[in-house]
């Protein structure tokens, strides 16, 4: 991936604050919307979710998940031309004493300061989604699969 493509990918991840989260729910596909923060240095996606939510229970029982992050629809632009990325990854809950917990919490609150009161509620917890592979669509007929290492390089470039 060249520098411009990596910059476009980072711009997409920074400009969007929600993703479609795909989980397995009783053996069937289930998709929900989740706010996310990106930890570029790992790289990983941070979710702050309630244990009451179906997707949280799903991630606890089957950690293989998918995220879809897409650019906003625009009048006059074909939906097929929208930049987007699908992440295949593994979700894991973060305990309070996990080494990544402070930086994950900080990243999430930096992006969603209004979520601070939810951190005091016992049923909310942080999850990290670590990418195993990504499928990036830069627009119509511009698709590329990225390994975990390739995704990591793309999101870290310009941050070191």
Explain what the structure shows.
- The protein is of the alpha+beta class.
- It has 4 helices and 8 strands; from the N terminus they run αββββαββαββα.
- The chain has helices spanning 3-15, 54-61, 101-111, 148-156; strands spanning 18-25, 28-35, 37-39, 44-50, 64-70, 84-94, 124-137, 143-147.
- Strands 1, 2, 3, 4, 5, 6, 7 and 8 form an 8-stranded antiparallel sheet that branches.
- A hairpin with a 2-residue loop joins strand 1 (18-25) and strand 2.
- The radius of gyration is 16 Å and the shape is globular.
- It starts with a helix and ends with a helix.
- The mean pLDDT is 93.
Q: What keyword list fits this structure?
A:
160 residues, alpha+beta, eight-stranded antiparallel beta sheet, 4 helices
Give a brief rundown of this model:
The protein is α+β, with helices and mostly antiparallel strands and 160 residues long.
* Percentage beta strand: 35-45%
Radius of gyration equals 16 Å
Percent range for helical residues? Answer: 25-40%
Model regions low in confidence, pLDDT < 50 over at least 5 residues? none
Overall residue-averaged pLDDT value: 93
Structural class: alpha+beta
Shape, per Cα inertia axes: globular
Give the number of helices: 4
> Ends: how far apart?
17 Å
Describe the protein's topology.
Layout: H1 3-15, E1 18-25, E2 28-35, E3 37-39, E4 44-50, H2 54-61, E5 64-70, E6 84-94, H3 101-111, E7 124-137, E8 143-147, H4 148-156
Antiparallel strand pairs: 1-2, 1-5, 3-4, 4-7, 5-6, 6-7, 7-8
